[in-house]
Design brief:
Elements (H helix, E strand, L loop, with lengths): L36 E4 L6 E2 L2 E2 H7 L4 E3 L14 H12 L2 E3 L4 H9 L7 E8 L1 H4 L5 H7 L1 H14 L5 E5 L1 H4 L14 H9 L4 E4 L17 H14 L4 E6 L22 H10 L5 E4 L12 H4 L1 H15 L2 H4 L8 E6 L3 E8 L2 E8 L11 E8 L7 E4 L4 E4 L4 E6 L4 E5 L1
Helix pairs in contact: 6-8, 9-10, 10-12
Length: 416
């Protein structure tokens, strides 16, 4: 499978506790893969604070644009628009997945100087929900057979670049009662057609701000669940996490008292919930509909959200190479706790990294403090402690067993 989504660069600064060691260097060498962090359907040429948004997002740690408006059609803009976009991306060192048709493949073929900028294509968004759209054109394009044909045509036009697509609640909340198989034999057949030509997928459920699901379906735990549900359907395809950094709905608060927009304080735990659940990248939805209109770069318009994005991205990119490394060879971890604790075990340059996070469910949507016991097996441990360099502390480990305390949705990163 093509993995060009995963070949971006990152320089990661790592803080070490006195007496604690880390296998990460202070800066990762150029050429190592970084963790993909994208923004959905943003205009690189749009300006804010005296800079174009290709650079503004780069400054926050974003490294890939996912989707470009009607790419590469210029009929809605002006002649030369597509080249200006490409130059802005290249000048900022930004990458892009863009285009859903043979026209995009033809553009890439005609502009080899941007081959390293345009990594792949975006086949579409939420066909599992849009097949029920009241817009007949939208619904027709989202039907499984039409989607299948479009994906195969794009793959035939350019088999060298991966194809990405985003799905909605049909994947994120599987089984979602809103999904209808009409017409078609069954849901499994529909989903197989949707994923036929895809190399990378994501699904979106805005678990903080969605006004259409009941209150018990909300909470940070919903982001991890969306990733885990999508991984079950993805086969070998990498799954990207999707999170709102804005107000995706104009509804404000509905009868369930659902908050809008996303509070900046919830962004970082939502992102880490997806990563610990197995997400191989993150995409931010930045459009803001809270005032009845649409602010495309709403997350940049909100200084608190922009700061939260930057801090979150820094915390993730610091471990980018670890997160994209292979699963830990031979080692396993088991957890005993009174409420859910998610774990992700990785191995990088001879060191094991255990990412753990207190999770929740519909019974405790705001999370729950928990004490957890961890048992490491299948690896010859060289030490009697595990270190937590991010927190400047270490824990005693006896026979591969240690314990720790988690506040609601708290992340701990252990090294051993």
């Amino acid at each position: 499978m093509k993995n060009t989504l995963l070949i971006l660069l990152v320089a990661s600064q790592v803080l070490l506790a006195p007496g604690c060691s880390s296998n990460l260097t202070s800066t990762e060498a150029e050429g190592l893969p970084s963790f993909p962090i994208g923004v959905w359907l943003q205009g690189p040429l749009r300006e804010r604070n005296g800079k174009n948004n290709a650079q503004n997002y780069k400054d926050l740690g974003v490294n890939v644009f996912i989707g470009l408006w009607q790419w590469p059609d210029e009929s809605w803009a002006y002649p030369g628009y597509s080249l200006q976009v490409a130059m802005a991306l290249k000048d900022s060192g930004m990458k892009a997945f863009a285009g859903d048709s043979v026209a995009a493949a033809d553009w890439n073929s005609a502009h080899p100087e941007y081959a390293s900028t345009f990594l792949g294509y975006v086949l579409g968004d939420e066909p599992d929900m849009n097949k029920l759209s009241g817009d007949q054109t939208v619904a027709a394009q989202a039907m499984p057979d039409a989607w299948l044909a479009a994906g195969r045509a794009l793959k035939a036009a350019d088999p060298t670049r991966p194809i990405y697509a985003n799905f909605g609640k049909g994947f994120a909340l599987d089984p979602w009662p809103g999904y209808k198989v009409d017409p078609g034999p069954d849901k499994a057949s529909d989903f197989a057609k949707y994923m036929d030509s895809l190399d990378v997928i994501s699904s979106d459920y805005y678990a903080i701000t969605d006004p259409y699901e009941s209150l018990k379906m909300h909470g940070i735990w919903g982001y991890g669940r969306a990733v885990r549900n999508t991984i079950k359907l993805a086969g070998s395809r990498p799954v990207i996490g999707f999170v709102e950094a804005s107000a995706p709905f104009s509804d404000g608060k509905n009868e369930n008292n659902i908050a809008s927009p996303m509070p900046p304080s919830m962004l970082k735990p939502a992102v880490w919930a997806m990563i610990v659940s197995g997400a191989k990248g993150i995409i931010y939805f930045c459009h803001d509909f809270s005032n009845g209109g649409m602010v495309e770069d709403g997350c940049l318009a909100n200084p608190n959200m922009a700061a939260a994005m930057k801090a979150t991205n820094e915390s993730v990119l610091k471990y980018g190479s670890v997160l994209l490394s292979t699963e830990s060879t031979g080692a396993t971890v088991s957890v005993q706790s009174s409420s859910p604790v998610m774990v992700l075990l990785k191995q990088y340059k001879g060191t094991h990294y255990l990412f753990a996070m207190g999770d929740s469910n519909c019974a405790w949507p705001n999370g729950k403090a928990v004490d957890a016991n961890f048992a490491i097996e299948g690896v010859a441990l060289q030490s009697t402690y595990v270190s937590l360099p991010e927190e400047l502390r270490s824990l005693i480990m006896r026979n591969g067993i240690f314990e720790d305390h988690f506040e609601p949705y708290q992340v701990h990163i252990y090294e051993f």
